[in-house]
Amino acid sequence: MDFKQIEAFINVAKFKSFSKAANSCFLSQPAISSHIASLEKQLRVQLFDRTSKEVLLTPAGDSFLNYAIDILNARDKAISNLAKFNETVSGKLKLASSTTPCNTIVPTLIKKFHSLYPDVSFNIMERSSTEIIENIVKFNCELGIVGESVNDEKIKSYELMKDDLIVISSPEFNLPDSIKIESLLKYKFVLREEGSATRKTFEDALLKKGFYTSDINVYFEVNNLDTLLQFVKQGLGISVVSRQIFRDYISYGLIKETFIEDLSLKRYIYLILSSKRTLTPTSKAFFNLCKNYFNFN
After folding, report:
1. Both 156 and 290 in a single domain?
2. Are 166 and 262 in the same domain?
């Protein structure tokens, strides 16, 4: 059963004539007859009684007519709603972000987006980069912002901005402005959990210099920045974090920043999405906002 058959049936019922129905549909009379014959065969009932003067609905045909009209109305309504869907930015924007961008660029982006689309509500989830990538692949989330590049054909990634990592410590530690790797590794560390892009960037940089992750004295592993900051301020250990997040604390003298000699701790923040999924209009609008704001292709 297809729409052409149903349209043919409704027009024959309306005009009580195959030839008049054919003219109204701009089809030949044999084409209309073929549609009706196919429909009757699929439904296993006779829909019309043919006389020499006109074509009349059988009781089965009369019963089916209301269903046929409802089917076409549902089709037209679906087409109309989908056309509006492609133009409407509304509902809820679900965005997953790793800790660093969630505490730096996400508030700015959401503010700009909210000013453009005030009727949209938001569900912002702070997750590790590893969790976000997994959620994007599994279609649990449309958009993610992470602190590491993704080498996966299922993921599209777009570079947003550069991010510098630094060592932070309590002022009582009296760490110098710059420090050698060997001296740094003598201290106790407060680090984010495994799966954190910040931690992975630090560990990967050490590996390139011939050190091992086991050389890092991780005494405290935490899953949020507030706890990490409090542990560092209390002098429980040092940490490696994004400079953007803690620049205010640094300027107020609450914590001390230190750079590691001969160790590059630069990374990039990325917007990621599934290469297999079509974005909703709302997510597409947020993607375009990021594209214009960060000027990526």
Report:
1. yes
2. yes
Strands (E) in the chain, as ranges, are 48-50, 55-57, 92-97, 121-126, 143-146, 155-169, 178-179, 188-192, 217-222, 239-242, 256-260, 266-274
Examine the fold and report which residue of 62, 85, 108 is the final residue of a domain before the chain moves on. 85
Separation between Cα atoms, residue 206 and residue 217, nearest integer Å: 13
263 and 282 both lie in a single domain: no
The pTM of the full predicted model, rounded to 2 decimals, is 0.71
Domain count, the chain: 3
The tens digit of pLDDT for each residue in 34-59 reads: 999 999 999 999 999 988 788 999 99
| CA-based nearest residue to 146, from 263, 283, 58, 268 | 268
- Backbone φ and ψ for 62, nearest 5 degrees, come out as -65, -40
- Say yes or no to pLDDT of 286 above 90: yes
Structural domain range at position 128: 92-161+269-294
* Integer Cα distance of 160 and 211 in angstroms: 30
Virtual CA dihedral for 88, 89, 91, 94, nearest 10 degrees? 140
Q: Which residue's structure tokens are 């201290």? A: 187
Same domain (yes/no): 56, 67: yes
Gyration radius of the chain over CA positions: 32
CA distances from 172 to 168, 181, 219, 232, 233 (A): 12, 20, 19, 11, 9
